[in-house]
Amino acid sequence: MKKAVVTWITTFLSVAVFAQADLLTVAFGSCNDQNRPQEMWQVLSAQHPDVWIWGGDNIYADIKNPGARAALYRQQKSNQHYQQLMKTCEITGTWDDHDYGVNDGGKYYHLKSEAKRLAVDFLGFQANHPVWQHEGIYNSQEYGKGEKKVKVINLDTRTFRDTVYRENYIDSTTNRQLYRMVPNVTGDMLGEQQWAWLEAELKNTAAQVVIINSSVQVLPSQHRFEKWANLPRAKARLLKLISDSRKNVIIISGDRHIAEFSKFVLPGGRVLFEFTSSGLTHTWADPWEEANDYRVGPLVIEKNFGIIEIRWQNERPHITLKVMGLGQKVFNEVSFSLP
Asked: Which of 40, 74, 104, 286 is least surrounded by CB atoms within 10 angstroms?
């Protein structure tokens, strides 16, 4: 497929015109250790995506030296198979903690400005893109043309996030000492500037489908790791904002080194899907059972990436979500039509 032709409009959102006007294929993934085998890129390219979305942990660089972090980005970007993907589709995305620079990091990380410059450069945003004009890495793009547009909103869940603490405990089943995150009941995830931007992005788009990219999971609340549920007031605010927008939203997330679909019914009956895809290069070494009352289908504990196919049928979007892995294997799939 030919690379999309990108133009700029007065709202500074990139609009790409793709060869197949009735089908847009979006691929995404996260948790890519540049020092592990990079075997997923060829598999991914064979799906001929129009857009690739980085979901965070795009490299692993929990280091304080910007020069060393820059070298790791160059290492990843020089991979021949990733370079081939760059030639055939649009690239966008966000970051998570390990490319931000500190595990489970939040707003008090003192090198976040230097980290942002390297991350935005890696993602390939041009010098005139609005992402360079504000603190943090949040950004948006639109793809498609006419009434067949898809908007991608990449959130920044690191730069402005309030502190969430860990506590140790003894697991009653295994008798092992583990840790869990302690909810910060008054804490925020996005910061007021990003909240205002997000509200405007949802309000001022004619796109029929909006993909919100959050590095950490939004809907699942029962596991003990990082998630929006650790900041319950912020999670409630996000879900209300999505509900009030009355837009067709799909959330994508990463971070967890697993894949799963989660389904939630918003007030008024609109269905919200979250598609978690994580583990381009590695997954859980020791699988375990993990509860998620919103899960649809199996929990996938395999190296994976996500495919979102948006096909317009009678001018309305029909969505297919696929968890894919090595050998073009489809681990889980769900399809639905949007109103």
From this structure: 286
Closest alpha carbon to 145 in 14, 12, 53: 14
Question: Position of tokens 């390219």?
Answer: 45
Residue 175: both structure tokens together:
């008798």
Residue 167's domain comprises 5-337
Tell me the pLDDT tens digit for each residue of 153-187.
Answer: 999 999 999 999 999 999 988 899 999 999 999 99
Q: Is 25 helix (H, G, I), strand (E, B) or coil?
A: strand
Into how many domains does the chain fold? 1
d(CA 128, CA 114): 18
Which residue is listed with tokens 């909103």? Answer: 153
Averaged pLDDT score across all residues of the chain: 93
CB 264 within 8 A of CB 274: yes
Token pair 């007065």 is found at 10
Q: In the 8-state DSSP scheme, what is residue 5? A: E
Helices (H), 231-313: 232-245
Phi and psi for 317 in degrees, rounded to 5? -80, 135
Report CA-CA distances (Å) from 107 to 104, 110, 136, 171, 216: 11, 8, 10, 30, 15
Instruction: Give the CATH number, domain containing residue 150.
Output: 3.60.21.70
CB distance 182 to 167 below 8 Å: yes
Residue 278 identity (one-letter amino acid):
S
3-class state of residue 178 by DSSP: strand
CB distance 187 to 227 below 8 Å: no
Average pLDDT (85-96) is: 97
